[in-house]
Design a protein that fits this description.
The protein has 85 residues and is mainly alpha-helical. The chain contains two helices and no strands.
Length: 85
């Protein structure tokens, strides 16, 4: 089951790549390494396919939530694969 793009208020406090000022619009985390894994999550940026599709129409708050989730997924992937070394 996929998570909705808009998160509950508690998820909005998740760790973010850096703090954004009120006048700063979060930019896309795309690193041009687009390849989806078995869960339809990009191995480059960590966003789900649903989040990638929603990015263009997402407001700043939703983009911050997407960025936080993507960062969590990248961290989890790194932890998972570092154990294989």
């Amino acid at each position: 089951m996929r998570r909705p793009v808009v998160a509950a208020p508690s998820a909005r406090s998740a760790h973010l790549p850096h703090q954004f000022s009120q006048n700063e619009t979060p930019s896309s985390p795309c690193v041009r390494n687009c390849c989806l894994d078995e869960d339809d999550v990009c191995i480059g940026c960590g966003r789900s396919l649903e989040e990638i599709r929603a990015w263009g129409g997402a407001g700043d708050q939703d983009r911050l939530v997407i960025l936080a989730r993507a960062a969590e997924r990248r961290d989890e992937r790194e932890r998972r694969y570092s154990k294989l070394d």
